[in-house]
Amino acid sequence: MNNEVLKAIADRRSIRAYTGRPVNDEELGALISAATQAPSAVNRQPYHFTFVRDKAVLDEFCQAWRNVSRQLNPDNPPSEDFNVFRGAPCVCFIFCDPLNSWSLVDSGIAVENLALAAHSMGLGSVILGMPKMLFEAAGEAWLQKLDCPAGMRFSVAIGIGTPAAGKDAHPVREGLVTVKG
Ligand SMILES: Cc1cc2nc3c(=O)[nH]c(=O)nc-3n(C[C@H](O)[C@H](O)[C@H](O)COP(=O)(O)O)c2cc1C
To answer: Does residue 71 have a pLDDT over 90?
Structure first.
């Protein structure tokens, strides 16, 4: 069976190299629609999306992330130019309510909506868990800088931009699926 949705699911990849082209306002609008149209348990929408295209903010975050990483992993420090956003020119940070037991699942659904929407527009994306280290180390500071609502915590991020390189599909682990009947 094949259709546009199945094709987008099959063709999406984690992109870790981007051209310098910024995500434009029309693309940003479509991404915001895709994120906010995601289903959530009991329609609570227990999250907040902060989209950042400001390079100075992304660079500052990367620098702070590298500093924390060096402190926490002195034996395996990141390289001087390691970019935790993989160079994506637009990053959506998803914050969620830790008191809502479905909020991480809901965040995951929203982030996949963003990944598929980006792919459908000819953009690339990479879902990002690694930024979490800085949020955990920096207390409220970075949460506040990124307009995270009070009480919410980082759940996941996604970098989005124009791909500069492709990637093979990931191998599917054996024994991943059971079908009965
Ligand atoms: C929750 C989650 C967190 C991830 N965090 C990172 C990350 O911090 N950095 C990164 O480069 N890729 C990250 N990835 C991408 C995975 O490595 C990638 O999805 C996986 O290797 C499969 O490759 P594919 O997305 O191209 O199919 C993350 C993916 C998920 C779902």
So the answer is: yes
Measure the CA angle with vertex 43, ends 39 and 49; round to 5°. Answer: 65
Alpha carbon of 127 to ligand 1 centroid (Å): 5
User: Which tens digits make up the pLDDT trace of 11-26?
Assistant: 999 999 999 999 999 9
Average the pLDDT over 82-88 and give the result: 98
CB 158 within 8 A of CB 92: yes
Decide the pairing of beta strands 90-96 and 153-161: antiparallel
95 φ/ψ sector (left φ>0, alpha ψ -120 to 50, else beta): beta
Tell me, in angstroms, the distance from the centre of ligand 1 to residue 166's CA: 14
Q: Determine if the pTM surpasses 0.85.
A: yes
Neighbours of 23 (CB within 10 A): 23
Report the distance separating Cα 10 and Cα 85, nearest Å. 23
CB of 9 within 6 A of ligand 1: the answer is no
- Ordered domains of the chain (ranges, CATH): 4-161 (3.40.109.10)
Q: Best mutation site among 128, 132, 135 for ligand 1, i.e. most ligand atoms within 8 A of its Cβ?
A: 128
Ligand 1 atom 7, closest CA:
128
Q: How confident is the model at residue 139 (pLDDT cuts 50, 70, 90)?
A: confident
